[in-house]
Design a protein that fits this description.
mainly alpha
Amino acid sequence: DLVRSRGLGDVYKRQLVWLLQWPIRALVLLLITYLPLGVEMGSFPVALLAAVVIGLLGSLLILPLKALFALPWLLTSFGGLLQPVSLLFNWIITVILFALAAWLIEGFRLKNGIVSAILGALAYSIISTIVLRLVGLDVDFTRAAQALVSAGVA
């Protein structure tokens, strides 16, 4: 079988999982707007766009952001030995991505600025991970949710 011999089955599986995640993450974004976090979403199409943009920003900017924070992270966490410091840097990156997506998309608004970005990113990462696992999609924790679990917070 050509697909299996070239490893294309894994590629197709990842693409299918991504396509299934997209509307679910958009629904999670809409759910977050009903929580008192200060996150506003104009409509479901805006939420769909926001879910894509957050994912793309994470893919495109994760390495530059990690490079930007590499030296402060290394010095303050002793190379990752101090888990709470690593958790803080993961959250900084997650909040930056969430806030940047809100800044880029008309109809996606953070009413309380950085406070809404922090609370929204927290809720989005944890709720989307839980929902995706409940529906049976094989996804890794987001960076922030994984950091919470490894630190014993969640």
